[in-house]
Amino acid sequence: MTAENVRFETLAVHAAEPRPAHGRSVVFPIYQGTVYEIEPGGGVDYIRYSNTPTQNYLQEKLAALEGAEAAVATASGMAAISTALRSVLGVGDRIIVAGNIYGGTHALLNEESRRSGWGVDFVDADDPAAWAAALTPETKAVYVESITNPLIRVGDLAGLAAFAREHGLTSIIDNTFPTPMLFRPHSIGYDLVCHSATKGLNGHSDLVAGVVTGSAERIEHVRHFLMLFGGSIDPHAAFLLSRGLKTLAIRVKAQGENALALARFLEGHSAIAEVHYPGLESHPDHARALELFSGFGSMLAFRPVGGLEAAERLLKSLQIPYSAASLGGVESLVTRPAISSHVKLTAEERAAAGIADDLIRFSTGIEAAEDLIEDFGRALGE
Ligand SMILES: *Cc1c(COP(=O)(O)O)cnc(C)c1O
């Protein structure tokens, strides 16, 4: 079953499920074993090589969802990203990084630029002239996130993929925020797609995992580095993740509907100064999101009138969302990026990135939109 013959909702449930079912069980079992008998002429199946039955099953499902030839699942999102980068960059190579990126990835690139001699050129994701200016003979790759945190911006993703192709660079994208339900970057030319499966792909805030998808050849290369560095996924986590994937489509749809309803409510509320959600006509990347994505996702950010004090008051009085970092789960979460995801930045760096102290980020769950809106209405009235 592939994206050519069924829709994404059907794919999420049925892709990679063996027919007839394995042992007639509708649910693929957990092969927790680490070691497998060698078939005559066959290779070694070993848990760290990410080629045991439950790992293979998950990887086939993930590849189908991203519309890729192959996938390799990893022990975390950072294992996926660091291994993908290692598979592409050698000592002295350079990478062009477009737009704001996840703090962990930013720290990894900075650290490796000192330790491995990687050259990292941070550029604006909307400025092709800056990409061209950053290009050197050592440049091997471009890196971008499909939706940035916490201002929910969407860069010129198609332009960047075309730029990479034109200059023979490997294009890598972190597609964690939209998930393949809303956006499949391979379809616009990205070579490697990475995810933190800890977030929306699993969606239940109860495991850590990651994935890289791409051509069979590129993924074999990533898998080679994964074998060496050892960030393979545990089969039990693989089982839980494949379980989460089956409800990906309905979860992301419900989250998107809730997020849009809440964003509209907040935008019309006198106690709210600004709202960042690509589904709103007021968002600077609304047109681009409409063109590239089949929905606007679960993430929004906003600032209350009254600054930091009002933000703190609001966080304390909301009753439904947990005050917690992370995202993409069935439960709504609310955080202030200045003290969570972006706490390691200096106040000046945060200001330069447009992250005000009173900016609140909301990861929308699958609760009833009316309840979320009532919770905000009550909390903002206090
Ligand atoms: C969480 C996250 C990561 C890191 O994933 P882990 O599973 O925590 O290792 C990478 N990129 C983005 C966009 C994330 O949100």
Folded structure, characterized:
The protein has helices spanning 8-14, 53-66, 77-88, 103-115, 128-134, 157-166, 179-182, 216-229, 235-245, 248-267, 286-292, 307-317, 347-352, 369-381, and strands spanning 70-74, 94-98, 119-123, 139-145, 170-174, 192-196, 210-214, 272-276, 299-304, 322-323, 333-335, 360-363. Strands 1-7-6-5-4-2-3 form a seven-stranded mixed beta sheet, with helices on both faces. The protein is an alpha/beta fold. It folds into two domains: 8-245, Type I PLP-dependent aspartate aminotransferase-like (Major domain) (Aspartate Aminotransferase, domain 2, 3-Layer(aba) Sandwich); 248-379, Aspartate Aminotransferase, domain 1. The protein is built from 14 helices and twelve strands. The protein is 39% helix and 15% strand. Helix 12 (307-317) crosses helix 14.
Summarize the structure.
This protein is of the alpha/beta class. It is built from 14 helices and twelve strands. α3 (77-88) crosses α8 (216-229).
By CATH, the architecture of the largest domain is named 3-Layer(aba) Sandwich
Oligomeric status: single chain
The helix tally amounts to 14
Strand order within the widest sheet?
Answer: 1-7-6-5-4-2-3
Helix percent band: 25-40%
Quickly name the level 1 CATH class of the largest domain.
Alpha Beta
Distance between the ends: 52 Å
Approximately how much beta-strand content do the residues carry? 5-15%
Q: Report the count of strand segments.
A: 12
Could you report the average pLDDT, rounded to the nearest whole number?
Answer: 96
- Under CATH, the homologous superfamily of the largest domain reads Type I PLP-dependent aspartate aminotransferase-like (Major domain)
The number of domains is 2
| Rounded Rg | 21 Å
Q: Are there runs of 5+ residues with pLDDT below 50, and where?
A: none
Q: Helices and strands, in N-to-C order?
A: HHEHEHEHEHEHEEHHHEHEHEEHEH
InterPro entries: Cys/Met-Metab_PyrdxlP-dep_enz (IPR000277), PyrdxlP-dep_Trfase (IPR015424), PyrdxlP-dep_Trfase_major (IPR015421), PyrdxlP-dep_Trfase_small (IPR015422)
Catalytic activity: L-methionine + H2O = methanethiol + 2-oxobutanoate + NH4(+); L-homocysteine + H2O = 2-oxobutanoate + hydrogen sulfide + NH4(+) + H(+)
Pfam family, one: Cys_Met_Meta_PP
Family: Belongs to the trans-sulfuration enzymes family.
